[in-house]
Specification:
This protein is of the alpha/beta class and 684 residues long. The protein contains 17 helices and 18 strands. The chain binds CIS-heme D hydroxychlorin gamma-spirolactone.
Length: 684
C-alpha cells in the first residue's frame, strides 16, 4: 500500500482484497511449501498392508492443517452472515461532525456488514427468537469505523460488568447445555426477574422484532448515545439508525419454529440469493441529534442504553444510504475472521459515559485476541484499513507486515521522529474534552432507575395483533420455565408495565394473576409499530402450484405480471422436471411438494390444472400448502382450478385471499403481497 492519500470509492476495499484471492481451479496440487504432490489418496506405508510411515510429510501436513481448521466461535453472535457493500451520503454532516466519510456526498465508502443471531452456536438455526446483530465496518480514508449495532434500540443491561451474567443466563444451561439458541428456560427468566433493568429489551425480544422475515427487512440501531464532534470542537449527542427500504417485517412464531427445521439457513440464504439476483438490499442511515445543552431535558437519562429517544420527540434525520451488493468469496476468510470493535472510531465520532458502551470498549479487542490468535488480526484482509497504517507496534503471532529499518520506538532521532503523530487540526484523533469530576464510586445514577415507563410506551404503541403476539411469546417463553417461582416473579415484574398483559400471561402459564396498577404512561410512539412500516411487494417470494394441463397462456401472463412488480416465484408440482400446460408450454419445476414447504414463501398462488382436484396426492399436498399459508396470515392467490381449494376450505372472500374471478387478479394479488400479512383474517 503506498503512502499516498488513499482514494476511497465503493470498490477500493474490493481492489485491496483481490490481491489476496487465489483460484485453485485448473492448478497443479502442491504442498504448502509449493512441492508438487504425486498422490493425494494414499499415505506412505511400509509394504502394501503395512504401517504408515512418519516420513510421509504430505500426509502429516494435510491432516495437521485439518486438525487446526477451527477457531473459537464468537462467545456471542456466533452465527452470522457477512456481505460487502457501500455507503453513500445524501448531505454533508459538516455542521455536526468532522468525520471525513460524512462530509462529501460524492464519496462512496466501502463497507462490510455482518448480521447475526446472538445466543445460538455457529450451527444453530436462523429463525430463533433472538436479537439480531447488524455490525458495519466502514473502510474510510481515516481508518476503519465500526458501528456494531443490533436490530433493537435498547439493551438488557445498563453496565458492561453485567454482560457475562446476562450471557451466562441466556446461553444453554451449563449442567446439560440445553436449550440451544433459546431464551425459553429457567436461568434466562430468573435473570430477567432479578435484574429488572432488562424489562425494556425483553419486551422487544417478545415482540415480532425478534423473528425478522429477512435481514433485508429489519432496522439497525447503534443503541448507545455517541458524540458527533465538528471541526470547531463543538459536540452533539447522536444516536444511529439503519432503516430498511423494504420495510420492517417479521415471521409468525409457528412459522419461525417450522423454518428452523425445514431451512435453518433461511435468513442467510435469503440475503445471499437477493444479492446474487441483483436485488441489492438498501438501508437508509438516520441520526437523532440532541444538543449538549439539552442533556437533561428528557424524562429519561440519555446515557441509559435501556432507553430510546422517541422519534416523535427527537426526529430521525436521514443522511445516507447503505447498499449491500456483493457476497463474500470465502466465508471463513471474510465473515468468520472479521473483527468488529465499537472503539474503532474516526475523528468526529466519540463516546459518551454510557457505562455499557465503556464496558464494550474493553471487551471486543480482548475477545479478538483469543478468537483470532493474537494482536495482528488487523492484518487479516477483511480487517485491513484501506488507508495506510504506520506505528511502532511489532511482532506477535502471524505478523505479516515486514517493517523495515532499525527504529521501532518513539521519540527517536534516527528516523527523524517518524512515524510522526498528527496534530488534531490536521486530522489526528483527539478525545473530546468532556469535563468530568467525582469520587471513585460503585454506584449508578438514580436517573437510570425507571425500568418500566418506556416499556409501557412500547406496549401502548403496538397494534392489537402485535400485542397478542407479545402475550403469546411471553406465554410460550415463561411457560417453558420449570420453576413456578420464577414464572410468578416474571408476571409480577411485568405487572409494573401493564396489568392486563401480566394477567393474561399469568392465566396462560398457571400462576397467580398479579395485582398492582401498571405504569401510568399513556403516550404511544407510532414509529415503534411495524404496522406503520413501509410496504412493498418487491423481492417477495411466491410459491406457484401447477399441475400438468394448466392454462399456460393465462398463467404465464400472470407470472409475468408478478415479475414486473419485482416479485420472484418458484414453481411447485408433484414431480420434478417440467410441468406442461394445455398448449404444450413447459415450465421448469423448481420444487416438489416435499423439497419445499409453504413456510418458505411469502405467498402461495394455486392454479392446479388437469386432474389436480381429483389426484389424491396433489390434492392433499395443495390443501396443506393453502391451509398452512392461511394460518400464517399469508396472501393466497387462486385462479383456474385453484379456486376449488379456496371453496373447499371456506377461504373465499377472506382478507388477503384473492381469486381469479376478479378482473384484475394480478393487481389485487400484488396488493395483498405488499401488505405482507393479513392480520384481520380470522385464523382458528
Ligand atoms: Fe457485543 C459481538 C452488538 C453489548 C461483548 N456485539 C457483538 C456483535 C454485535 C454486538 C452485533 C457481533 C459482531 C460481529 O458480527 O462480529 N453488543 C452489541 C450491542 C451491544 C453489545 C449492540 C449493546 C448496545 N457486547 C456488549 C457488551 C459486551 C459485548 C456490554 C461486553 C462487555 N460483543 C461482545 C464480544 C463480542 C460481541 C464478546 C463477541 C464476538 C466479538 O465481540 O467479536 O466482545
Amino acid at each position: 500500500m503506498s503512502d499516498d492519500k488513499p482514494k476511497i470509492n465503493g470498490s477500493s476495499k474490493q481492489e485491496q482484497l483481490e490481491q489476496f484471492k487465489v483460484d485453485d481451479t485448473n492448478k497443479k496440487m502442491t504442498t504448502n511449501q509449493g512441492l508438487p504432490v504425486s498422490n493425494d489418496e494414499l499415505s506412505l506405508t511400509a509394504g502394501k498392508r503395512g504401517p504408515t510411515l512418519m516420513e510421509d510429510f504430505h500426509f502429516r501436513e494435510k491432516v495437521t492443517h485439518f486438525d487446526h481448521e477451527r477457531i473459537p466461535e464468537r462467545v456471542v453472535h456466533a452465527r452470522g452472515f457477512g456481505v460487502h457493500g457501500e455507503f453513500e451520503l445524501y448531505e454533508s454532516m459538516k455542521a455536526y461532525t468532522k468525520a471525513k466519510f460524512l462530509q462529501d456526498p460524492k464519496v462512496k465508502t466501502p463497507v462490510f456488514v455482518r448480521f447475526s443471531t446472538v445466543v445460538g452456536s455457529r450451527g444453530s438455526a436462523d429463525t430463533v427468537r433472538d436479537v439480531r446483530g447488524f455490525a458495519t465496518k466502514f473502510y474510510t480514508e481515516e481508518g476503519n469505523y465500526d458501528l456494531v449495532a443490533n436490530n433493537m434500540p435498547v439493551f438488557f443491561i445498563q453496565d458492561g460488568i453485567k454482560f457475562p451474567d446476562i450471557v451466562h443466563a441466556i446461553k444453554p444451561e451449563p449442567h446439560n447445555e440445553i436449550p440451544q439458541a433459546s431464551g425459553a428456560h429457567d436461568t434466562f427468566w430468573d435473570f430477567v426477574a432479578n435484574n429488572q433493568e432488562s424489562a425494556h429489551q425483553v419486551m422487544w425480544l417478545m415482540s415480532d422484532r425478534a423473528i425478522p422475515r429477512s435481514f433485508r427487512m429489519m432496522q439497525g440501531f447503534g443503541i448507545h448515545t455517541f458524540r458527533f464532534v465538528n471541526d470547531q470542537g463543538k459536540a452533539h449527542f447522536v444516536k444511529f439508525h439503519w432503516i430498511p427500504k423494504l420495510g420492517v417485517h417479521s415471521l409468525v412464531w409457528d412459522e419461525a419454529q417450522k423454518i428452523a427445521g425445514k431451512k435453518p439457513d433461511y435468513n442467510r440464504q435469503d440475503l445471499y440469493d437477493a444479492i446474487e439476483m441483483g436485488d441489492f438490499p438498501e438501508y437508509e442511515f438516520g441520526v437523532q441529534i440532541i444538543e449538549e445543552k439539552d442533556e437533561f431535558a428528557f424524562d429519561f437519562d440519555i446515557l441509559d442504553p435501556t432507553k430510546i429517544w422517541p422519534e416523535e420527540d427527537v426526529p430521525v434525520k436521514i443522511i445516507g444510504k447503505l447498499t449491500l451488493n456483493r457476497n463474500v468469496d470465502n466465508f471463513f476468510a471474510e465473515t468468520e475472521q472479521v473483527a468488529f470493535h465499537p472503539g474503532h472510531v474516526v475523528p468526529g465520532i466519540d463516546f459518551t459515559n454510557d457505562p455499557l458502551l465503556q464496558g464494550r470498549l474493553f471487551s471486543y479487542i480482548d475477545t479478538q485476541l483469543l478468537r483470532l490468535g493474537g494482536p495482528n488480526f488487523h492484518e487479516i484482509p477483511v480487517n485491513k484499513p484501506v488507508c495506510p497504517f504506520h506505528n511502532n507496534q511489532r511482532d506477535g503471532f502471524h505478523r505479516q507486515t515486514i517493517n523495515k529499518g532499525q527504529v521501532s520506538y518513539h521519540n527517536n532521532s534516527l528516523a527523524a521522529n517518524t512515524p510522526a503523530t498528527t496534530p488534531e487540526k490536521e486530522g489526528g484523533y483527539a478525545h473530546y474534552q468532556e469535563k468530568v469530576e467525582g469520587s471513585k464510586i460503585l454506584e449508578r445514577s438514580e436517573s437510570f432507575n425507571d425500568h418500566f415507563s418506556q416499556v409501557k410506551l412500547f406496549w401502548n404503541s403496538m397494534s392489537p395483533h402485535e400485542q397478542q403476539h407479545i402475550i403469546d411469546a411471553f406465554s410460550f417463553e415463561v411457560g417453558s420455565v420449570k420453576s413456578m417461582n420464577v414464572r410468578q416473579q416474571v408476571v409480577e415484574m411485568y405487572a409494573h408495565v401493564d396489568l392486563e398483559l401480566a394477567t393474561q400471561v399469568a392465566n396462560n402459564i398457571g400462576v397467580i394473576p398479579p395485582t398492582g396498577e401498571g405504569s401510568s404512561v399513556t403516550k404511544a410512539s407510532p414509529a415503534l409499530s411495524q404496522a406503520n412500516t413501509m410496504k412493498t411487494p418487491a423481492t417477495r417470494k411466491v410459491g406457484v402450484i401447477l399441475n400438468n394441463g394448466f392454462n399456460d397462456a393465462e398463467v404465464k401472463e400472470i407470472l409475468h405480471g408478478l415479475n414486473a412488480e419485482g416479485i420472484v416465484y418458484e414453481i411447485i408440482s408433484e414431480k420434478q422436471g417440467v410441468v406442461t400446460g394445455i398448449n404444450d408450454v413447459d415450465l421448469m419445476v423448481d420444487h416438489t411438494f416435499t423439497t419445499t414447504d409453504p413456510v418458505l414463501y411469502d405467498a402461495i398462488y394455486v392454479v392446479g390444472g388437469g386432474d389436480s382436484l381429483d389426484n389424491n396426492v396433489f390434492h392433499k399436498q395443495t390443501t396443506y400448502y393453502v391451509k398452512e399459508a392461511f394460518k400464517h396470515y399469508k396472501p393466497i392467490g387462486a385462479t383456474h382450478d385453484g379456486v376449488g381449494w379456496l371453496e373447499e376450505s371456506n377461504m373465499t372472500g377472506t382478507p388477503g385471499v384473492v381469486d381469479g374471478n376478479n378482473n384484475d387478479f394480478v393487481n389485487k394479488f400484488v396488493g395483498a403481497i405488499a401488505a405482507h400479512r393479513h392480520w384481520d383474517r380470522k385464523v382458528n
